[in-house]
Each structure stands twice: as structure tokens, then as C-alpha cells.
Amino acid sequence: MEKWYQLDTEQTEKKLHVTVQKGLSSNQAKQRQKQFGPNHLKSSDKQSRWLIFLKQFQDFMVLVLLAATLIAGMLGEYVDAITIMFIVLVNGFIGYFQEQKAEKSLEKLKELAAPTATVLRDGTWEKLPSSELVPGDIVRVKTGDRIPADIRVVSSKGMETEESALTGESLPVMKHATAMKKPDLEAQDQTNMAFKGTLVTRGWGTGIVVATGMNTVMGQIASLMSNTKKIPTPLERKLAELGKILIIIALFLTGLVIAVGVYHGHPLYEMFLAGVSLAVAAIPEGLPAIVTVALSLGVQRMIRKKAVVRKLSAVETLGCASVICSDKTGTMTQNQMTVKEIYHQGAQIEVSGEGYQIDGNFYINDKQIDDNFADLNKMLLYGVLCNNAALKVKKGQYIVDGDPTDGALIIAARKFGLKPEMERNYRIIKEIPFDSERKRMSVVVEDENKQRFVITKGAPDILMPRLTYILEKNGRGVLKERDRQAIEAAVERMAEKALRTIAIAIKPLKQTDTLEAHMIEKDLQFVGVYGMIDPPRKEVKAAIQECRQAGIKTVMITGDHVKTARAIAEKLELLPKEGLVLDGQQLSAMSVEELRNEIENVYVFARVTPQHKLKIVQAFQERGHVVAMTGDGINDAPAIKASDIGISMGITGTDVTKEASSLVLMDDNFATIKAAIQEGRNIYENIRKFIRYLLSSNVGEILVMLFAMLLSLPLPLVPVQILWVNLVTDGLPAMALGLDKPEEDVMRRKPRSPKEGVFARGLAYKILSRGLLIGVVTLVAFMVTYHHDPDSLTYARTVAFSTLVMAQLIHVFDCRSEISIFNRNPFENVYLLLAVLTSVLMLFVVIYWPPLQPIFHTTFLAAKDWMLILALSALPTVLFGYTKK
Ligand code: ADP
Ligand code: MG
Known about the structure:
Number of strands: 28
Structural class: alpha+beta
Oligomer: single chain
CATH architecture of the largest domain: Up-down Bundle
Bound molecules: adenosine-5'-diphosphate, magnesium ion
Shape: elongated
CATH topology of the largest domain: Calcium-transporting ATPase, transmembrane domain
CATH superfamily of the largest domain: Calcium-transporting ATPase, transmembrane domain
Helix content: 40-55%
Number of domains: 5
């Protein structure tokens, strides 16, 4: 193996035929992809298709049915035996396809949630799925990222990585770019290499990919690979348990049917076959699979709305959310910062222009100021030097590459006429990056004359205690109390206008001064304050309102100034009159209990650090809330993990937060959370719909048989008919219910309790009452047409069979509403219409196509028969449609 750590950058470039400036060409990348394969660790083997197929028949009752069929075949009932076998086979195929579909959409999920990497290809930086990386790619990583492949670091800005996954050592390792000449270094000592799967805890850097996929150090430690087993969601678990109980009930009732039938003189083997068919039909063995399909179809709908679910169980929990704690910047606002105001040497300067257009001027009291106004050019230059963003041109428009807050400062400087050439005279010697904890950023720069100085910018109240001097017209002065008050007043004035404020300060250094953070960030000299606007996203106000109607509280969380936060909250109508705003200091002083007692009245948390988020989540949870919490930075991960629904940002989010989250917002937009919750509620309602449909159908099937036996009648349905009903009416219509549109009032209901059982809100009653009536009308249809002579038996069975099928197909529309069938437009769900039409067509085929008549024990029906069938089969649905019970 190549010892990459021994090579310097140039040697590495040469070896991999790439330059750090341009990266690979897309052609090169394509070729290498073929050569090296995708950059991921091979996951454990999947279930083979055959196994999934065979699994469909492992069900005990299906095996009994097959055995019974075999016996029937041996006794000479070939037609029945073959038909039953055939139906069982078809059923198996359907189960197989459902499971495949579920599996496939889960795979797709994984792909979507897969990590991305920032890569240099053809000279431009792009975001690509990490799996597409190849050796030679130039990648950029920053705090919170997972290293996407093994890389040789070629530049590092205070980059540290945590490699415990690899070495067990949890202390971060500082990374640098210099070649290391030692002959044999273990991975943990190769400090100019960063390894796939490890975590950037600080700073940022670039590197050349030297190994991908299974060739990485991580890939070699095969034991580290975790099996990605599918964990059943709470609902799936509940249904699996319920399934067991239902099996027992179904077995008991079919046993009863058999016993009563035999008692009344039916031949044992006939009763046995009928009973087992009934059991197979009545046991909702397909329910968990349909639930999975419904969940994953819902997930696909969510993806279209830009919400990517990482854990299937989140789909269920989403519907229960009662509080959304959302970041302000970028989630509720556009994250398109524009400097609108500047406070500098006592003057209040206004800046014109919108967005990232470099088009605007500087005014005091509506009078444009000239180029050499005070030290404004210095202040703007400092803002550009203490900066982590860059301006790029894309399709003739300026865009900001990096933090929009920093971007705004560059735009402001360019508006004032500061040319990029000016900055080239300064060299950055040290950088302490911005983070939400410190709320400030510092750089040490050196000018052409080797004169060094610090530039620090950050939240004004955080900088204030670190200020001793002030930059005045004629040089450095001491910062007096009067100056402090003036600065504070300026900051408040800006914050009340919803402006985000950033103060900037400097300090000259001697060549020999230490560059420790606590030493350079003190006794600073105040230069000015920027006020920048970040307009709310347009859709957010309406989304907050919809959430309120849905019984979901929205809470804004931000690191910004209290007044800025309040002003934006008011714009969004998020803060009611009696609502409270808490700031980070107040939060720190409170215990979780104290917070818990107040939290229902709090709508905005300002000047918070990521640590506070955890406290907020806990306080809400202690009040019994189901909490959704957003986050992007590495420090947000604990709160996201602790919340019921962790939400991360697809664009600005770090890998760590994405991994901790169960939902990723591809557009970072608050409104997407609302859409996801709506979809989550809808999916759950749809699942209720088909559970109701399937179970009431089964109740009907069992009861018609049981009643007939109790009344000493012949079997109203023969085994093949029972199995046919199970196959046709259970399959398609149930699936179509899973695709149903929500009822109008889903977002006007209170959130569902996560403890709610499957049969809550009257579902059990609905299943039993509808099932009972379906059974009764089918029996009535049979009794009216059966004249106690064997000749009419086939005729009566055909009528009963048709009545049962039609009753179920009409009832399926009833299941679409929690209240009444008349509340909904029956033509709304095209899939359902198609499913029902297909089922009716298949019913006609087995009744009217002569070759199938002996197989399904059917006969021609006349128009008057259909009148009876329709009248009876519509009865349950119409009746309950009126009673609304
Ligand atoms: P949020 O993400 O909720 O807006 P942040 O933690 O990003 O909160 O910002 C908190 C404060 O830190 C801001 O109000 C601003 O004063 C300051 N700040 C934000 N970004 C930067 C930056 N890039 N450099 C210096 N200070 C910043
Ligand atoms: Mg921020």
C-alpha cells in the first residue's frame, strides 16, 4: 500500500494525475468510477428474492390450506384443489411484490439520506453524493462533516478530527498538510491524513482523495460495519401483536364454523376445507406489509415536498407532533443577508440595495456620503478580511459561497467600491472560526509591512466586555461609558427593525505576541456595527398559522439578539400578545423544572447556544409534548437526538446532525416541516382506513359463514369463492386506500397521542358494526334465493358471493371518512375507482365467462338479481352514512 503521508502535495498530485486547483475532469472521474467502484462500504447481504417469495407461504394457515387442498385433490376434487393452489400462488406473488416494493423504497430512502461531499471537478466546487468520489478527487470538509473517503490533507484551517470510530481515541487530532517522513506510521499517527468515517470537530480543510470504499482504512476494519437491519416502527409492532390476537380469534371462529357445520350434518372434509379457506381469508397476514408499503409511499410523497425521512418510524411520530422548535435563521428566514445599516464613529449610515446585487449607496439622513467618509473604508475592509465566504458569479448573478452573514459584509464592501485587490495585501496568519457557542470570529492578519493585527467580529453584547478602546476620527481613543451607551442604543435601534447585528473590532499585535484565543480577543478597539436584514420566507407565516389550527405550537430559536428575534416573530405572527421571549441568560439561570412551568407561554428563545436546545426539548417533553426540533450545526446533534422528531437541514446541515435526525429538509424551509407533518397525519389516517376496511370485510366473511351454520343452512360460499374474495377485494382497494387524499380537516384536528391504540377513536366499533351488517346482508341474499333444493344452491351462492363482494366494494368508500361517506367526493381517488372497477370486472368474469363457472361454482345472474344484490350490498354503507355513528 502507498504511504501517502510521506508524500508532499505535489507528489500526491502527480501520483493521482490531478491538481489541487482544478480537480479531476468529469471524464477522468467517470473512468475512475468504473475502475474503483462506488465509494461506500459494502453492506451485509440482502435477503435473496427466493427467500422473500418462499416466506409468503411459511404462514401456518396457508400451509394447512395447501395440505387440505392436497387431500381434496386426492379425494377427487381436482378443480377445487388446483384453483385453490392457484389462488394461493397468486396471493404469494402479491405478497412478494408488496414486500419488494417496500424493500425498494427503503433502499431509495437510504440513497436519498446518503451523505454528500464538496468536490472540485472541472475547476468548480460541487456537492455530490459521497459514493461518487474517486481517488484523485479534491474535497473540502468543515466542522460537522464526516470525512467522505481517505484523504491526504493539503490545507488545514485549524482542522481537527475525531477518530474514535477508527482508533478508539476520542480526543480530537489536529490535522496539517506537511509531509511526514517517518517510515512506519499507524493510522492514528498520520496527522496529515484524514480517514473516511471520522468526524471534523473544528475548522476546515481540503484534501486529495487517496482511497475510497473498501480500500479505506475504515473499509478494512470490516467488523466496524453495522448491519442496517430494518427496525419495525411502533405501528408495525402494534399491528404484529394485534395480528397474533386476530389469528387466535379467527382460528377460534373458523373452528366454531367447522364444529357447528359438522354438527348439522355437513361432511367433515368439506367443512374442513371451507374452514381453512376462511381462516386464510380472515387472517390479515398481509397487514404489516401493506402498512410498510403505505408508509414508504407516504415517504415518497414527502420527498416530493422536499422532506426526506431517514427513519420510517418518523412518519408515524410526525403525525403526533405538538411543538415545533425551529431555528430562525435560514429556516424561517431566507438566509439572504443584506447589510442595511452601519453604525460607525457615531454616525447612522444607511445602505441601499437588495439581496446580493452589488448595487447600492451609503446615506446619512438621505444624503449620499463620499468615498472617504471617516474610517468607513477601513471598517468594510476589516469585515472582508475577517470573513469566511466568497463571492461567485453564477449565470450572471452574484452568489455567496459560504456563510451568508459573511457574504453580506463582502457585498457591502464592494458597494462602497472596495476592490478585491486590496485584500491581497493582507495575509491571514490565524483564524478562529465562528461558532454558535462563541458567537464571534477572529483572524490575525499581517500587512505588507509585516504589521500584524487582530480583527474580531461577533454579536455586539458578546464583544462589548472585550472592548477597551474605540477607533475615533483621529486614531485610537479609550472607550468611555458614553460610547458604550451609544453603541448599545444603536444596536437596539437596529434590532427593533428586525436587523441582525454584528460588531467589529481590531487590535494591533507585535510579531512576538502569542496567538492564543483568550489573549488576542481582549482589549479590542471598537470599529462599528453592521445591521443586516434577513427577510422571512414568504410561506412561513401561513405555515405557522396552519400549525396553530392543527394544535401544534411553533417556537422560534435563534442566536440573534432578543429584539431582532422578537421583531421577526411579530412579522411572522408567531408571538401572541401574552407570549414570552426568553434569552439565553434567563434560560441558563433556570432549572428544567422552572422552565417546564413557564414554557407553555414561551414562543421565542433568543441569544441561545446549542446547549440550551436540549433543555428546551426536555422541558417540553416533561409537559407531555411530542417535540420536533431543528438544527444544523454539530452542537445541535444532542438536542436533535433527544427530540421526538429530529430535523436537520439538507443544504446547510452538517453530516453529524443529519445522522442524528429522522427528517432532513432538502430546502431548509420551515414550511416543509408543516407539509411533512400534514403528510404524516395523512398516512396514519390512511392506514386506519385500510385497517378498518380489511378487518370489517373479514368480520363479514366469518359471520356469514357462522350464521349459516347456526341456521343449519348449506355453505353460502365455497372455499374458492372465499379465497377469491380475499384476493380481489383485499388487495387492490386496500392499497388504493393507502393512496387516499386527506380529509379536509386533518390539519384542524388536535395532534394524535402517540399512545393511541390501533382501534382508538371508535375504530373497533366501526369495524364490528359494518362487518356485522355486511355478513347479515350476504346471508339474507343467500336465504332469499335459496329454495331448499340443490338446483338453486349454485344460484344462491352466486348471489351471496356477489352481494359480499359488492358490499365490500361499496363499503370501501365509507372507510375514507371518519364521519360519513357523504362527507367525501367518491370520485376523488382515481386509484380507488380503478381498483373497484377492476374488482367488479373480475367478478363479472368469474360469473359470466362459462369456462370459469364450474371452477368458481357460479352461474348467470339476471338483471333482477343485480337489483337485489345492489340494494342489499349498499345497505350497510348507506345506513351508517346517515346515522354517522
Ligand atoms: P442563528 O443561527 O440563530 O441566527 P447564530 O448563532 O448564527 O444564530 O448567530 C448568533 C449571533 O452571532 C448573530 O446575531 C451575530 O451577531 C453573530 N454572528 C453570526 N454569524 C456570524 C459570523 N459569521 N461572524 C461573526 N459573528 C456572527
Ligand atoms: Mg447561524
